[in-house]
């Protein structure tokens, strides 16, 4: 998978099979999905028949007719080729995924007893079965860990070879079929039957087998069909106008005019654009469950971002020691360091680091101190260390004060009201600044506070400013209290925040925004995120998350990186922009084609119209042929653009539109004048007409 | 081109723009059901009418009910007008003793007035009795205009309302358009025209002895009242055959200016009604600006072509512009301006003969109509017409800003695009298909006045004018034949109702949608960029559709003239 990520557009492994597919896609059932190209195929077939008839009866200018017929078919083939190339990249990914879906043997547990299992083929597993997977085994199907903890290699789906931990309970309980357990063992309850596992869905998604037209694609198809009808009217009435003037126009010329006028460029590339959009997400290691979700991403108005991990660096770090009056900084630092020596949490480690860097307190060996570590529990909300009859605790201010109260009733030293006031004022000050205060107490004596700070990620402020320019409002979601949340929100530059977030108020925030007509995107991983993920218009579930979260979202991020929401929005916008830009280009092209074909067409009986031949094309036949060749070649020329997508720039909608109008609108008017003239010179020089 | 000519054009534009805000504000109040200056007088009458019809302003209609009411009302109007013409011989108010109108002509005329086209295959003073003129034609002049305004207001409500089901009440909108907008303005205008010398009488025609001693019958009638609504309601059906070129229907430069302004007044103000109702007047101005750009461009080309005249005539030693078919009391600038206005606004009244314009001068009226009568357009009709183009423009451009397209907070999706395409498609269908048949049909070609490309233009113009519900004629073509009466009648029906129904369907679909608040990512639709975009889309879609037809008509005629050949 990681190899195919770098597969370039011009990769022969994709281009060669795509050539074959271009012919295979001439199947009318496949063509019928695309109204514009279907029409081109039908008229190509008709002109082929007419040409064969002329060939048999010995008609005029057979060479010219033959070339037109040839280029008409090329137009259809180029469109098929574009689609095949777009699909080809997905196919390469699907193939590498398929390799991971090897036949596995599963150890099915009969009654939950670890030792009693029977070996069954992985494909025979049903939802609800419990299997045991041991080190070295491939996990047979998607499931949820119900017992045990193991390190798992998920490179098969994420391309990332570093193993991840999967354990029962919590938000890291989901395992994916096809991944490999590296150490320890886990008991897994199967959640997906054979054929509908995550990898199966990934394969069909990247292959485009499940691709359905998105709402916007349908609307665009209607517009293109409408334009086609308009040009049916414009060309089908010409023979009668000619006959009024006493002239005659060959069918082949009319067909050439018709095919060049109808929006073949966008018609040919439309499905390639859609497939490439999904593909870009896949290369970002994001799986969209439907094209609709990708489109919705472009429309997102409000982005809900979890504070932890997205806006801040996940773990808080100690930045200063604030002793109360009468206590030295050194003393506080010393106690805090002792209490944290055995604390393996990032916060604990950061205290040790700070004490060393700022106060030169070296790490001590717990064993030689005869110290016993007191771990953090949900009840005590403190951790610390006991040694030589002395005890040090650190924890939330309230918890620590409660602890002092308890020890006081047990007959310890009394703590003065002044010390409590002091500690509260320091704590408030830190909380207002967005930090977390951690009180430190030694043998019932308050020492002071460790200031833990949420570190806002570098560059995130600029990202939010960019989002604002894109017209997207960011809302930070955090479990912190409102004061802390406000401070971090201000530092990070988000537009709004939801403090003390619960699954319920997260859900109601989404509903409120949607009631205002806005589209909401969010990401989440826990089971309690599932309702909000399902409610959001774009719900990105983290791959590390629970099965419930993955089911509820309409995208899955394989790297579990919540900042990716921003890229997802950009990819959605890019997809829509590419469609718009190529549609504009396609329609703008028609002006030049008229100036090429109309004078050529009527020249026999209205020679005055030769004045409209502003490109100075050599002969009527070369003019018509040049127009149709340009029309076919422009499809091939634009395949890279349709696969790469038009670049999105956060410069405001007005500026973006004028830029795109200039490039694709004005460019669309000018380019064919130049192109048709060049082709005319070339085919005249080659003596093709 | 003269300085004086341009001053006339600018004065006209200035007056129209000045009228937009006051008239727009007044109409907004009327259609929102708020109190206006005229409410004390007209309020009781209005309620009386609702009582008699068994409706109420609170009875809001779903778009389908609204459409059904509109169709029923127009069908009834058609039947009434048809019967009036067929039976006029035995009905009163017929001092000139006009007989029954033939069935095809009666069909054509009834359709023509019901669809606000006023294509006239008859000469008013020699065909229609006073009763037919007043109770039939003039009544339709009012209600066909009111129908157009009602549809536009319904469509505006589609954008202005959110998460609703209904688009208004057809009967109420129609009544208010007639009672509060058209009638009061027409009464004022009628008095002004009478003051300027336009006849208003039910007396018989007058016989006079000319200076040469010959006897001449001078046609009279209730001209001023019909003139007022013919302009204000963009109907265009003249009381006299010569329409506003006739001295009794357009005596002098002042009456000419008033007529031109009243053609544009309501259509231009409609953009302001839109702006006010959606809560941002700039949105209305942006649409009016688009219309303005297209209009000025058309006037400039037409005036330039007419003022330049014919090089072949110049070669014979005759200097100056093209005065053929123009009234000397109006001159070239006012005639070119009038031609551009009347075809831009789907009015169809004329003060000069368009068929006598130079090829390029005559091309402009054709293009104005082929673009779908969206340059100000017919009252109401022009506005809902241009909104169909707005839907298309927004759809393509909206994608280019990286969002699914939205206009005024409403998402433009498959249903809206489908309806807009249908609406836009029906005009070229009617114009091109009928022209294509007529130019190869012996009966069709037989009516042509001048053979060659000019004759082609005559036929193209006839169907274009009919389908666009304009009603002006190119001259030269003998339209009063069964073939043209029936086919132009059909073109008029297509051009009217096949646009109205999709427009109402869009209103019905939009009204149900939520309104998305604008953000920095939303494409602003009240600025110059939008104006440029919309202008481009109208020109490209319209231009591409008709390029082949125009090439073998006016364009080849012009190129031939430059090479010394005329038709």
TrEMBL record, chain A:
Catalytic activity, EC: 7.2.2.6
Active site: 306 (4-aspartylphosphate intermediate)
InterPro entries: ATPase_P-typ_cyto_dom_N, ATPase_P-typ_P_site, ATPase_P-typ_TM_dom_sf, ATPase_P-typ_transduc_dom_A_sf, ATPase_P-type_domA, HAD-like_sf, HAD_sf, P-type_ATPase_bsu_IA
Transmembrane segments: 34-52, 64-82, 218-242, 248-273, 594-617, 623-641, 661-688
Statement: the UniProt record of this protein carries the keyword Cell cycle: no
Binding site for Mg(2+): 525, 529
Domain P-type ATPase A positions: 103-207
CDD domains in UniProt: P-type_ATPase_K (cd02078)
Leading EC class: translocase
The keyword Lipid metabolism is annotated on this UniProt entry: no
Keyword tags: ATP-binding, Cell membrane, Ion transport, Magnesium, Membrane, Metal-binding, Nucleotide-binding, Phosphoprotein, Potassium, Potassium transport, Translocase, Transmembrane, Transmembrane helix, Transport
Catalysed reaction, written as an equation: K(+)(out) + ATP + H2O = K(+)(in) + ADP + phosphate + H(+)
Record's bilayer topology term: Multi-pass membrane protein
Positions contributing to ATP binding: 343, 347, 376-383, 394
Known function: Part of the high-affinity ATP-driven potassium transport (or Kdp) system, which catalyzes the hydrolysis of ATP coupled with the electrogenic transport of potassium into the cytoplasm. This subunit is responsible for energy coupling to the transport system and for the release of the potassium ions to the cytoplasm.
Homology family: Belongs to the cation transport ATPase (P-type) (TC 3.A.3) family. Type IA subfamily.
Protein's name according to its UniProt entry: Potassium-transporting ATPase ATP-binding subunit
Organism annotation: Kumtagia ephedrae
UniProtKB/TrEMBL annotation, chain B:
Subcellular location: Cell membrane
Keywords of the record: Cell membrane, Hydrolase, Ion transport, Membrane, Potassium, Potassium transport, Transmembrane, Transmembrane helix, Transport
Transmembrane segments: 6-24, 65-84, 134-156, 177-196, 253-274, 286-306, 374-399, 420-441, 483-507, 528-551
Domain of life according to the entry: Bacteria
Bilayer topology: Multi-pass membrane protein
Family label: Belongs to the KdpA family.
InterPro entries: KdpA
Chief site of localization: membrane
Protein's UniProt name: Potassium-transporting ATPase potassium-binding subunit
An annotated Gene Ontology molecular function: hydrolase activity
Main function: Part of the high-affinity ATP-driven potassium transport (or Kdp) system, which catalyzes the hydrolysis of ATP coupled with the electrogenic transport of potassium into the cytoplasm. This subunit binds the extracellular potassium ions and delivers the ions to the membrane domain of KdpB through an intramembrane tunnel.
Organism encoding this protein: Kumtagia ephedrae
CC per GO annotation: plasma membrane
Quaternary structure (record): The system is composed of three essential subunits: KdpA, KdpB and KdpC.
């Amino acid at each position: 998978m990681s190899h195919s990520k770098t597969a370039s557009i011009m990769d022969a492994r994709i281009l060669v099979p795509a050539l074959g597919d271009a012919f295979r896609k001439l199947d009318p059932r496949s063509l019928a999905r695309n109204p514009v190209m279907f029409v081109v195929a039908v008229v190509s077939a008709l002109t082929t028949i007419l040409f064969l008839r002329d060939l048999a009866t010995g008609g005029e200018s057979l060479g010219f007719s033959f070339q037109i017929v040839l280029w008409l078919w090329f137009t259809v083939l180029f469109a098929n080729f574009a689609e095949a190339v777009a699909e080809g990249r997905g196919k390469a990914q699907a193939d590498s995924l398929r390799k991971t879906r090897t036949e596995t043997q599963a150890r099915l547990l009969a009654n939950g007893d670890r030792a009693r299992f029977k070996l069954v083929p992985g494909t025979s597993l049903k939802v609800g079965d419990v299997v045991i997977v041991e080190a070295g085994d491939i996990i047979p199907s998607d499931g949820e860990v119900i017992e045990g903890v193991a390190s798992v290699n998920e490179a098969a789906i994420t391309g990332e070879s570093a193993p991840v931990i999967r354990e029962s309970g919590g938000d890291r309980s989901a395992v994916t079929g096809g991944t490999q357990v590296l150490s320890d063992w886990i008991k897994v309850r199967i959640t997906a039957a054979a054929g509908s596992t995550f990898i199966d869905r990934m394969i069909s998604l990247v292959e485009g087998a499940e691709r359905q037209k998105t709402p916007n694609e349908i609307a665009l198809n209607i517009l293109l069909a409408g334009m086609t009808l308009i040009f049916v009217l414009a060309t089908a009435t010409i023979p009668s106008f000619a006959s009024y003037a006493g002239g005659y126009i060959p069918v082949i010329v009319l067909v050439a005019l018709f095919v060049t006028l109808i929006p073949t460029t966008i018609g040919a590339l439309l499905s390639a654009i859609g497939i490439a959009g999904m593909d870009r997400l896949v290369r970002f290691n994001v799986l969209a469950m439907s094209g609709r979700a990708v489109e919705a991403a472009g429309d997102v108005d409000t982005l809900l971002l979890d504070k932890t991990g997205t806006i801040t660096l996940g773990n808080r770090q100690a930045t200063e020691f604030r002793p109360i009056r009468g206590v030295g900084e050194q003393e506080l630092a010393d106690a805090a360091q002792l209490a944290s020596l055995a604390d393996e949490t990032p916060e604990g480690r950061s205290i040790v680091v700070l004490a060393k860097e700022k106060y030169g307190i070296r790490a001590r060996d717990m064993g030689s101190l005869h110290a016993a570590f007191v771990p953090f529990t949900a009840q005590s909300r403190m951790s610390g260390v006991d040694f030589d009859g002395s005890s040090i605790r650190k924890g939330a201010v309230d918890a620590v004060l409660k602890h002092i109260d308890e020890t006081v009733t047990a007959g310890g030293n009394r703590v003065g009201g002044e010390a409590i006031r002091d500690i509260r004022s320091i704590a408030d000050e830190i909380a207002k600044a967005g930090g977390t205060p951690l009180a430190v107490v030694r043998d019932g004596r308050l020492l002071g506070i460790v200031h833990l700070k949420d570190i806002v990620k570098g560059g995130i402020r600029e990202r939010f400013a960019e989002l604002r320019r894109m017209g997207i409002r960011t809302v930070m979601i955090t479990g912190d209290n409102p004061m802390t949340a406000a401070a971090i929100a201000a530092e990070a530059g988000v537009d709004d925040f939801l403090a003390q977030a619960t699954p319920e108020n997260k859900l109601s925030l989404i509903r409120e925004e949607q009631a205002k007509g806005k589209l909401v995107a969010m990401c989440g991983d826990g089971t309690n995120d599932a309702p909000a993920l399902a409610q959001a218009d774009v719900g990105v579930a983290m791959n590390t998350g629970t099965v419930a979260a993955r089911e509820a979202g309409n995208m899955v991020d394989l790297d579990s990186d919540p900042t990716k929401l921003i890229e997802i929005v950009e990819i959605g916008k890019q997809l829509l922009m590419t469609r718009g830009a190529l549609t504009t280009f396609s329609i703008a092209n028609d002006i030049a084609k008229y100036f090429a074909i109309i004078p050529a067409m009527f020249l026999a009986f209205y020679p005055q119209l030769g004045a409209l031949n502003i490109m100075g094309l050599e002969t009527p036949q070369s003019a018509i042929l040049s127009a149709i060749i340009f029309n076919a070649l422009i499809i091939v020329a634009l395949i890279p653009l349709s696969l790469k997508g038009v670049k999105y720039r956060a410069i405001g909608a007005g500026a973006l539109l004028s830029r795109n109008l200039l490039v694709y609108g004005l460019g669309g008017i000018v380019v064919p004048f130049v192109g048709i003239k060049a082709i005319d010179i070339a085919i005249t020089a080659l003596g093709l007409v | 081109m003269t300085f004086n000519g341009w001053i006339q054009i600018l004065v006209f534009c200035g007056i129209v723009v000045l009228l937009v805000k006051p008239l727009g504000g007044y109409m907004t109040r009327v259609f929102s059901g708020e109190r206006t200056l005229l409410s004390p007088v007209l309020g009781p009458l209005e309620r009386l009418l609702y009582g008699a019809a068994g409706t109420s302003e609170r009875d809001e209609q779903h778009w389908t009910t609204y459409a059904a009411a509109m169709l029923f009302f127009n069908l009834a109007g058609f039947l009434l007008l048809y019967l009036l013409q067929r039976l006029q011989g035995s009905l009163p108010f017929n001092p000139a003793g006009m007989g029954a109108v033939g069935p095809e002509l009666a069909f054509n005329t009834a359709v023509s007035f019901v669809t606000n086209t006023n294509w006239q295959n008859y000469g008013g003073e020699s065909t229609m009795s006073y009763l037919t003129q007043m109770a039939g034609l003039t009544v339709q002049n009012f209600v066909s205009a009111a129908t157009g305004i009602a549809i536009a207001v319904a469509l505006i409500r589609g954008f202005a309302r959110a998460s609703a089901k209904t688009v208004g009440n057809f009967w109420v909108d129609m009544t208010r358009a007639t009672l509060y907008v058209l009638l009061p303005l027409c009464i004022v205008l009628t008095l002004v025209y009478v003051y300027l010398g336009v006849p208003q009488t039910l007396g018989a025609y007058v016989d006079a002895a000319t200076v040469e001693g010959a006897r001449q019958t001078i046609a009279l009638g209730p001209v001023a009242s019909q003139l007022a609504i013919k302009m204000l309601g963009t109907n265009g059906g003249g009381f006299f055959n010569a329409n506003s070129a006739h001295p009794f229907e357009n005596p002098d430069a002042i009456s000419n200016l008033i007529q031109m302004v009243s053609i544009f007044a309501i259509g231009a103000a409609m953009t302001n009604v839109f702006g006010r109702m959606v809560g941002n007047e700039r949105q209305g101005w942006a649409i009016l600006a688009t219309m303005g750009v297209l209009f000025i461009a058309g006037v400039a080309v037409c005036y330039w072509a007419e003022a330049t005249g014919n090089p072949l005539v110049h070669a014979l030693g005759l200097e100056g512009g093209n005065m053929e078919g123009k009234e000397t009391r109006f001159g070239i600038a006012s005639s070119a301006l009038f031609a551009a206005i009347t075809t831009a606004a789907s009015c169809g009244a004329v003060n000069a003969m368009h068929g006598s314009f130079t090829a390029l001068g005559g091309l402009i009226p054709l293009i104005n109509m082929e673009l779908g009568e969206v340059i100000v357009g017919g009252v109401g009709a022009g506005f809902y017409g241009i909104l169909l183009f707005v839907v298309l423009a927004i759809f393509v451009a909206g994608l280019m800003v990286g969002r699914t397209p939205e206009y005024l907070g409403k998402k433009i999706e498959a249903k809206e695009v489908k309806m807009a395409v249908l609406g836009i498609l029906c005009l070229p269908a009617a114009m091109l298909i009928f022209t294509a048949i007529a130019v190869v049909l012996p009966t069709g070609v037989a009516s042509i006045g001048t053979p060659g490309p000019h004759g082609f233009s005559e036929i193209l113009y006839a169907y274009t004018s009919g389908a666009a519900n304009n009603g002006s004629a190119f001259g030269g073509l003998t339209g009063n034949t069964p073939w043209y009466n029936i086919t132009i009648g059909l073109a008029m029906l297509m051009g009217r109702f096949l646009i109205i129904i999709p427009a109402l369907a869009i209103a019905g679909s939009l009204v149900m949608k939520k309104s998305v608040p604008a953000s920095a990512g939303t494409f602003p639709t009240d600025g110059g960029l939008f104006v440029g975009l919309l202008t481009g889309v109208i020109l490209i879609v319209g231009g591409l559709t008709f390029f082949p037809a125009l090439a073998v008509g006016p364009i080849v005629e012009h190129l031939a003239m430059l090479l010394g050949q005329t038709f």
